[in-house]
Every structure is written in structure tokens, then in C-alpha cells.
Amino acid sequence: MLKKLVLAITFVVASLTTTAQAEYRLIVPSGPGSGGATWASVVAEQLTKFTDEPIVLQHVPGARNIPGLNMFHNKFRFDDKTIVVSFGSHSVNYLLENVDYKFSDYTAIGMMNLDLIVGHHKDHDPINEVSSFAGTNAMNDALAVGIMICGPQPSVDAHIACWKKKMKWVNGVKGSGILPMYLRGELNVTRDPPPSWLRHYANEPNTVLWFTHGIMDLETGKQIPNPNYPDKLFEDVYEQTWGVKPSGDLWEAYHLARTFNNVLQKVLWVNKGNPNAEKLTNALRAMLADEDAVAAIVANAGKYEWIVGDKANEIRDNLNLMIKKDNYSTLVKWYREAYGTKSKFKPEIVND
Fold first, then answer.
1. Where are the domains of the chain?
2. Superfamily assignment of 2-113+265-320 in CATH?
3. What is the pLDDT of residues 313-329, one digit of tens each?
4. Among 136, 130, 122, which residue's Cα sits nearest to residue 150?
5. What is the sign, positive or negative, of the torsion defined by CA atoms of 218, 105, 39, 138?
């Protein structure tokens, strides 16, 4: 018993040591237990098997997950042993808020081409009844819900008016607060990335999967069905509901935001010029060639494609080319007028 206790204490102490003791630090911009943090923990555990030194997690929680990535950018990015993981919220924050971090300053070790999943109570009719939804990091999902429940509208202003009539949006709810509110019936619509969806909602008897945002086809750049839920792509569900394909200015704004959000949802970054980048990239490739490691990640997040090294950085660069004045200004308008945020239009990132 004493031996087990000593081993347990040794493990905890080892987990709290710094990169000065020849470890890689993985900054996770959220507290333990979130979907992103759980994903990072599983990936770090598997990736450590193929690196020359262990990977230790450092959680940095904060509003909309911004402080952790800002801290990496301002304090640790020139540390050759520091890695950071980005979440989907970071991509939307990059588009709409003053943040310190810049993805163009970093090298991607690899990214998981993920999706986000939207569901609702089984007895709720979201098209004909008022929906209730919340989540500081769920605003892009709420935009999709707004397009879905309102159908074709003549203008963005008309969409916003419809949204305010058909949606009860609850501001300021953190990710950890959504599930209990949903289970208590205070919300009737919910969303989560695949790791959290599998843990919290996949087997929840009062929940039906409504739609997914889909994933980006890396060859064509188009959105395609989630391979785990192939009949639930947003575009297909919308057309089944309204008899037409989604289109218009708000649709284009949503497509911009969801592509940024999904593609950058789970990315491992180091600073450009980091001498360990190639070593870490090769370790990730080795991990993805290991059946047991892949099985552990699939069990947590579902089966999704990984993009590694140069290809991941190319995709990052192509994402920036999607930011056009029209789709970007519409996205800013929606966030300001639907949610009441102080989102800003940043002309320096526009690619017209």
C-alpha cells in the first residue's frame, strides 16, 4: 500500500514539473474536464509514447479560452519545449475580437479535421416552437440554428428579427454550464464537439441529433458529411426542412465561421522556427500509425481525419483567403445584433 502511495505521489509531482526538467509543456486553454481538455489529455498520453520526453499538460482557463493562447503567444512561444492546442472558439475570437495570438506566427504539428454536433430535446419541435440555447463558445452553432429555424429570409435584418422571435438565447453561459441546464430542461437545444457529444449526449434518451456542420474535404475545400453521421449535414437537413438549399449573405457568413471553427478546432501548434517541430511532427505520424493509439483517440473523439505538418499549415493559409469583406462584415453584424457582443471588423485580415 505504501509503495502504491509513493508511486502515486511521484506521478503527481512529475506531472507538475516544468519544461526545465526536459519535458514538453502542452498549454491547454481551458480547465480540466472540458471536451477540449479531455481530447488534449488523450492525445498527449498517446503522443508521449513516441516523443523523446514526456508531455505535461498546463491548463490555463479563462473567458472564451482566450487567456491560454494569449499566454502562449506572449510568454512561451519562444520556448522550444512548449506546445499549445487551439479550439474552435479561438478561430472565431481571432475573427471578431482583439486577441494577441496569430495563427500565421505558428507552425502546425497536426490538426484533427473535426465537426460540431447540434441536438435538441426529443419532444421539442425547433421549427415551430421557441428554442432555447446558450453557450459562450456556441455562438457559431447558434448562427446555424438561426438559419435553420428561420429558413429563407429576404435579408440579414429579417433573419435577425426572426431569430429574436423564435430563439431564447442565454448569454454568458460557459461550456460546463450548458449540460446541466439542458438536462434540467432550461435549454432545449444543445451542441458539443465529438468528444463531449459521445460522453454526454450520444446515449442520452431525451436527445436527438439534429444536424452537424460537416467537415471540410481537403481536396475540394467543400463541406462534406461527417463520416460518423453521414445523413445529418446541415445543408441536407436544411433542404429537407425548407425544400431549397441554403443561400444568401448570412449563409456565406456562417460558412466562413464554421470552416474556421471546425478546421482549427483541435490543432497542436509550436512557434515558427521551433527546432523541435520536425521531431514532434514525426512523433505524431508515428502515433497515427499505431493501432492502439488511434483506437484510444477514436474512442474519445470518433473517427476523423488528421492533417499533419506542411499540409496542415497550407490549410491554415487557405483559410485566411476565405475572409472577404462581405461575408466577414455580415458575420460581425450578426454577432453584434443577435448576441449583443462588441465584435469588431478587422480590415487587416480581409483578403479581397
1. 2-113+265-320, 117-261+324-349
2. Bordetella uptake gene, domain 1 (3.40.190.150)
3. 998 888 889 999 999 99
4. 130
5. negative
CA distances from 260 to 7, 63, 188 (A): 43, 19, 26
Which CATH number is 117-261+324-349 given? 3.40.190
Task: Count CA atoms closer than 13 A to 76's CA, side-chain side.
Answer: 23
pTM, two decimal places = 0.86
Helix (H) and strand (E) counts in the chain: 14, 13
Residue 295: count of CB within 10 angstroms of its CB = 12
The answer to whether the 2-113+265-320 and 117-261+324-349 domains have the same CATH topology is yes
Task: Give the pLDDT confidence of 196-221 residue by residue, as tens digits.
Answer: 898 899 999 999 999 999 988 877 87
- Residue 166, classified by CB atoms within 10 Å of its CB into exposed (0-12), middle (13-18) or buried (19+), is middle
